């Protein structure tokens, strides 16, 4: 069968890498892809929001399954378009992808169906938002309502910062249309975990546990990014926490979406805050996390293609997933200055040396090719991902790979996976 993966980041490189291993697959295309996907698939120069172009390509090239990586085409209704044309596609329909596209919708859904989450308010005007900040206290979390590429969340540590953030979003257009409405919520204490599951709208199959590292600097300091690294499994997700997440978060959400007339099919990602035996939901994403996707797919023993097909066809019953006992760690190598202003166009050196290491894959995220060289073209540039017999072993292998790669101004965290070792 022929498979089309939509997207150009590290998550999509990991999907292409895993899908291409399936004995069911003849050819993989990636649109638009990157230099990493180009090594194992045929890149197609189509943007992720070019729904007409992607649909025409799929029809002309006998695509048997399309897999959507990023949130933007989901929110634009690509799944609806493909299904209306009789094409199998993995991802959430537009009316279900709103669970990520609108944080206000997501919070209201959780409140209505008893999914544990932080106390919150939704605002379009500055003054009521400031009153809520004063009532709730500091620190406080302020989120742009719409899609902001993983950067629309600010944890304000002072009243002045909170008020300035609200003014920036609502009046100053800091996040454009995404910030024309804000969700403000109480700050939750605990340890974050990423909980992902495949669902056909009824059946739910959890993936292995994982943990992302959002802050740009070691020790969870500095502004939030799209993710500076991830590991799996995450010891914070104990069997009891897993059971609670499945029953109180995933089950209630999938059932709630169905009750709202928005049946959810695809992969559902819940960002969780774990504190003792309690679980609260920080957010939902309508797609694989990036960088969580990279270590999760390295650990997935089963062929992913039958799972993706079963979801696309709307029936996961009888499907199961096997996982390697090994741990996996992904360290994101970013451009200096990210998530603020950063430089692009720097030559990346040492990729061949990293590729020669055992149980290690360098997933490309923000890279491009110029004059036969691989250069930086984004904020998060590479996801160096390794398997190991233990978390420590996987950490050592990942950083061995990181040590072989360099470019001017490269930045990465040096403590990815450290929380797992503390447990």
From TrEMBL:
Protein name listed in UniProt: Phosphoribosylamine--glycine ligase
Class of enzymatic activity (EC top level): ligase
GO biological process, one term: purine nucleobase biosynthetic process
Pfam families recorded: GARS_A, GARS_C, GARS_N
Reactions performed catalytically: 5-phospho-beta-D-ribosylamine + glycine + ATP = N(1)-(5-phospho-beta-D-ribosyl)glycinamide + ADP + phosphate + H(+)
Gene3D superfamilies assigned: 3.40.50.20, ATP-grasp fold, A domain (3.30.1490.20), ATP-grasp fold, B domain (3.30.470.20), Phosphoribosylglycinamide synthetase, C-terminal domain (3.90.600.10)
Keyword list, A-Z: ATP-binding, Ligase, Manganese, Metal-binding, Nucleotide-binding, Purine biosynthesis
Gene this protein is translated from: purD
InterPro entries in alphabetical order: ATP-grasp, ATP_grasp_subdomain_1, PreATP-grasp_dom_sf, PRibGlycinamid_synth_ATP-grasp, PRibGlycinamide_synth, PRibGlycinamide_synth_C-dom, PRibGlycinamide_synth_C_sf, PRibGlycinamide_synth_CS
One Gene Ontology term of the molecular function aspect: phosphoribosylamine-glycine ligase activity
Domain ATP-grasp per the UniProt entry, residue ranges: 107-313
PANTHER family documented for this protein: PHOSPHORIBOSYLAMINE--GLYCINE LIGASE, PHOSPHORIBOSYLAMINE--GLYCINE LIGASE, CHLOROPLASTIC
PROSITE patterns according to UniProt: ATP_GRASP, GARS
Cofactor needs: Mg(2+); Mn(2+)
């Amino acid at each position: 069968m022929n498979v089309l993966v939509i997207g150009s980041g590290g998550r999509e490189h990991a999907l292409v890498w895993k899908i291409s291993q399936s004995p069911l697959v003849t050819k993989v295309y990636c649109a638009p892809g990157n230099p990493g996907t180009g090594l194992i698939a045929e890149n197609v120069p189509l943007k992720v929001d070019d729904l007409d172009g992607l649909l025409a390509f799929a029809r002309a090239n006998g695509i048997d399954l399309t897999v959507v990586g990023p949130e933007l085409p989901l929110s634009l209704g690509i799944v609806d378009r493909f299904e209306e044309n009789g094409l199998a596609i993995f991802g959430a329909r537009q009316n279900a992808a709103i669970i990520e596209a609108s944080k206000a919708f997501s919070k209201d859904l959780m409140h209505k169906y008893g999914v544990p989450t932080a106390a919150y308010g939704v605002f379009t005007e500055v003054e009521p938002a400031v009153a809520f900040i004063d009532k709730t206290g500091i620190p406080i979390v302020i989120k742009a309502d719409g899609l902001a590429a993983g950067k629309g969340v600010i944890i304000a540590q002072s009243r002045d910062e909170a008020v300035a953030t609200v003014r920036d979003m609502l009046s100053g257009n800091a996040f454009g249309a995404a910030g024309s409405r804000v969700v403000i919520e109480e700050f939750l204490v605990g340890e974050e975990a990423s909980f992902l599951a495949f669902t056909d709208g009824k059946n739910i199959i959890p993936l292995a546990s994982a943990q992302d590292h959002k802050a740009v600097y070691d020790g969870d300091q500095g502004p939030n990014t799209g993710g500076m690294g991830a590991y799996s499994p995450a010891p914070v997700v104990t069997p009891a926490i897993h059971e609670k997440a499945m029953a109180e978060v995933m089950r209630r959400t999938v059932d709630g979406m169905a009750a709202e007339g928005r049946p959810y099919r695809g992969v559902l990602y819940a960002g969780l805050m774990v504190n003792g035996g309690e679980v609260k939901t920080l957010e939902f994403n309508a797609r694989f996390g990036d960088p969580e996707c990279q270590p999760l797919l390295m650990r997935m023993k089963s062929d992913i293609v039958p799972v993706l097909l079963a979801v696309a066809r709307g029936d996961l019953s009888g499907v199961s997933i096997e996982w390697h006992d090994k741990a996996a760690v992904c360290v994101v190598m970013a451009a200096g200055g990210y998530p603020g202003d950063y430089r692009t166009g720097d030559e990346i050196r040492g990729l061949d040396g990293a590729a020669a290491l055992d149980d290690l894959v360098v997933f490309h995220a923000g890279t491009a090719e110029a004059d036969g060289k691989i250069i930086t073209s984004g904020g998060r540039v590479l996801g160096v991902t390794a398997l190991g017999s233990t978390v420590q072993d996987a950490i050592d292998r990942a950083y061995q790979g990181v040590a072989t790669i360099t470019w001017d101004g490269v930045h990465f965290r040096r403590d990815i996976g450290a929380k797992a070792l503390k447990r």
